[in-house]
Amino acid sequence: MRILLFISALLCNLNLCLGQTPELKKEIEIIVGGKDLKLGFALYDFSTGKSISINGNDRYPMQSVFKFPIGVALLDCVSRGEFALSDSVTLTKADLLPDLWSPIRERWPEGVRLPLVSVMTYMVAHSDNSATDFLIHKIGGVARIQDIVNRLGAKKINIRNNEAEIQGSWSVQFDNWTTPNAMVDFLRLMNDGKLLDKANTAVLWEIMASASSGSVNRLVPKTVTFARKTGYSGANSQGIIAAQNDVGIIELEDGRRVAYAIFLTDSTLGTDAGYDILAQIGKAIWKAYER
């Protein structure tokens, strides 16, 4: 009797795994259906190897999502002995440009000396633009960062400009682009330990899991971990939001993981409505894998 019950439960779980991805895709299409925006979405289930995508090969501006591959490039330099995360670095007042979002500048307007890992945390977890441009310069510029992520296996992740350049001109953001499928592939490389060694992968995971921005996990229990990076363009004079993005890896209560990439572009709905959509998609993913 116990064996029959076990087999029944196993088949039930198998059916859930095999059936959930098409249903999830339909639910996400319903969430964005009829709304004035374009969605790019990709998901990969590490447990089953199944994936889904919506406009998965189309290009989307990354905005601050590019801070994730920059963090990978920095940690690759650390693994090669160029830097140590414990190194103390100085951000001067000149590094903390007044027109860029910067929690570091808000706290230390005259400049500050911090461990390198703290600057990286400000960049990834708090999306600090001044920290980003400081680290881009330290690594050796956007061209070197592009070379590093390409060497590590990135495809269709295009990094051409720093934050000062992106924020200085609306059109420049479109030069820093990726596709949902490409970003999920990069997240898969991270999760599988193919980007970085074990120690640096753990550092990156912890920082991404502490991210303070975004709303994709707003409707999901706190026991579910979202290790993620967001990106947001703001609206132009026509009220169009070019990027309201969220990418990352979800770790469920039972340890299973799912990589996802959500890109919203050409939206006229407003910021709050965009965050509501991200939250609904996050909840839909969680519900699809809830046991």
UniProtKB/TrEMBL annotation:
<dbReference type="GO" id="GO:0008800">
    <property type="term" value="F:beta-lactamase activity"/>
</dbReference>
<protein>
    <recommendedName>
        <fullName>beta-lactamase</fullName>
        <ecNumber>3.5.2.6</ecNumber>
    </recommendedName>
</protein>
<feature type="domain" description="Beta-lactamase class A catalytic">
    <location>
        <begin position="41"/>
        <end position="263"/>
    </location>
</feature>
<dbReference type="Pfam" id="PF13354">
    <property type="entry name" value="Beta-lactamase2"/>
</dbReference>
<comment type="similarity">
    <text>Belongs to the class-A beta-lactamase family.</text>
</comment>
<dbReference type="GO" id="GO:0030655">
    <property type="term" value="P:beta-lactam antibiotic catabolic process"/>
</dbReference>
<dbReference type="InterPro" id="IPR045155">
    <property type="entry name" value="Beta-lactam_cat"/>
</dbReference>
<dbReference type="InterPro" id="IPR000871">
    <property type="entry name" value="Beta-lactam_class-A"/>
</dbReference>
<dbReference type="InterPro" id="IPR012338">
    <property type="entry name" value="Beta-lactam/transpept-like"/>
</dbReference>
<dbReference type="GO" id="GO:0046677">
    <property type="term" value="P:response to antibiotic"/>
</dbReference>
